[in-house]
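Suppose you are handed a protein chain with no further information: no name, no annotation, nothing but its sequence. What can you learn? This example shows the usual starting point.
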Amino acid sequence: MMENFRFFYEEFYGDYYIKFKNSGINLNLNNVKISFGNLENYDIVDSPYSLFISSLGHSKPTVSFKFEDNNFKYESRYILISYDDFVPLNLSTKSSIDKGLNLKYYAIKYGNFTFGYEEASVYVNRLFDFEYFSNPLPNFFVQYYRENVLYNGIRSFNDNSLIGFFATYEDLKKYLYAQILIDDFNANRFFNPDNPTVDKIAWSFGGTYNLNNYLKAKIFSAGATKYTFQPSADSGNPLYYGYTYFIVKN
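A reasonable first move is to predict its three-dimensional structure. Written in structure tokens, the prediction is:
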């Protein structure tokens, strides 16, 4: 991973570098947890193939509001993907773009089962979208309201929105999960078969089983259709709307 980091004053300290993992503040207020700082990010499902947030736990500037009781879970999370800065000695060249992500999930707990709805919205040319983060409604309704009501079509928010569902089961012996992510589902195969729109769907399922105090069996499977995590550039949507931690500029 060293090639992903710049050395820390290489002329003085050699090939050492600094990497932040967790540097932030957590506030636990009964059923509410508020977190902010440069934090590792994980999905709500525990899997090496989680779909909405990478299981590698990348650290990014993050703000999270989480509520959980015996029956319900909710989280609204903001992650800063990148921001506009400049290449030294060439101030006319941008080395990145303003890009943020807002994740939400709503889950019902029933015994050892948890069933939930999960969604994420990626946006560019602004660092933080307060309404996505603060409004408890699903992002789909927030985006629709702003595009069609608040600005009456004058201002366009061309955000990349994804939705999905998950289910988990957990007891002392085993943990099972299933998760699906949907960007575009081509209903034209039924209504307009000549339309070339492709499906953008990913799925993941698996679990673990404790055989004894020393051995644990694990099995996982995941897959995705070809263009799931990149935008449709053919429709004029720039590639930097892709659902990744790292920027692709076209």
